[in-house]
Amino acid sequence: MARALTAERLQQENTAFQGTGGVSACSRDHGFRPAFLDTETGAIYISCSCDGQPAPFHRLDGLPEELISERDERGRVIAVKQRVVSGFERDGCFYTREQAACSVVPPSPRQGV
After folding, report:
1. Torsions phi, psi for 21 (to 5 deg)
2. pTM of the model
3. How far are the Cα atoms of 38, 80, 107, 112 from residue 84, in angstroms, in the given order?
4. Which of 42, 63, 71, 95 is most exposed, with the fewest beta carbons within 10 Å of its own?
C-alpha cells in the first residue's frame, strides 16, 4: 500500500538518492526542477513555497489544496495524497527520482593525472 508523501518521506528519498541526479542539488545544473506529479490526473506541479515562488528543493506547502491531506495545528502541510510522487520537471516532462538519477551521470574521477 502506498504511503502519503510527507516531509519525512521526502528526507528519506533525499538520503536514498544522495549524490545522484535524484536530488535537487545534483540535478539543477542539468535543467531539472524539483516537482510533483499527480498520478491520477497527470498534472505536474513545480515545487513552490507557500507564496508561490519556485523552491530550490521539494516543498509540500506550495501544492494546491486539492492534493493536501493533512495540516498541522499552525496550518502547515504535513502530508499530501498518496497519488502524489516527488521527482523533477524538465522541458515539460516529469522524471521520477530514479529517472533523473539515471539521466545525470556524475563525472568520473580523473585517472592517471
Report:
1. -70, 0
2. 0.89
3. 5, 7, 31, 46
4. 42
Q: Tens digit of pLDDT for each residue in 73-90?
A: 999 999 999 999 999 999
Beta sheet of 33-38, edge-to-edge order: 44-46, 33-38, 84-90, 93-96
Domain with 54, as residue range(s), is 5-103
**What number is the average pLDDT over the span 46-55?**
93
Alpha helices in the chain (DSSP H): 7-16, 24-27, 97-103
- Report CA-CA distances (Å) from 78 to 6, 7, 32: 6, 7, 24
Q: What is the tally of structural domains in the chain?
A: 1
The kind and range of the H/E element at 94 are: strand 93-96
